[in-house]
Amino acid sequence: MARTAWVGGNWKCNGTTESIKTLGEVFNGTSFDKKKLNVVIFPTAIHYSTARQALNEQYELGSQNVSKTKNGAFTGEVSAEMLKNMNVPWTLVGHSERRTLYHETDADTAVKTKIALEHGIEVCLCIGETLEEREAEKTNEVCSRQIDACVEAISDWNKVVIAYEPVWAIGTGKVASQQQAQDAHEAIRAHIAKKVSQEVADKVRIVYGGSVSDANCEGLIQMKDIDGFLVGGASLKPAFVDIIKAVKAARA
Ligand code: 13P
Known about the structure:
By secondary structure, the protein is an alpha/beta fold. It has eleven helices and eight strands.
């Protein structure tokens, strides 16, 4: 089954009005067919409108986080209601930096996934094991657990992309090998087939994240269960366009 490729650019806590304008000029210089490839940029909340103005309509935008609480006395939070009101179509949920640095639990990711989907916001659900867990051969167990936590919360699998991001590969320059990434993606798809249905497993997009660059993306996108990427550092550089081009060429 042909799945529409998906590439995310997670800008994390980076950017200035000037850098976003400059990147926008570079990104806008490439074109792709939105029916074959979705590209979603995740700027900080404060840069959202700057990024929306800088990027042309080929690019969708998303939030890096969504509150698990509603509007009200929750200082520092951005609610799903607000994302909906501001026409923000996507949000990341469960990024490893949220899980590790801000102590978000599997239960938190489930609540955030549910609340985002209820407000019509598509979710890129991030999962992945630490180095310790990989060395203990617990990769599949960890990914399955992180997915299981959210299965009940997912009312529409068409609105969910899974990002497999091994923690040891994030920001380290140590990209997973093509086979390591393929094995993990295949196991995630098999788990979804068992827990949800074969139909959902066949159609859900599973993208790889962790030190993706213009130098390694061509090989990774050839793997049969890899439907695209969630890119961190390289999405802040002109080379992000080369990643878009590589995915476009592989899916042409
Ligand atoms: P890097 O591409 O910088 O390793 O970051 C990956 C990531 O965390 C994307 O969400």
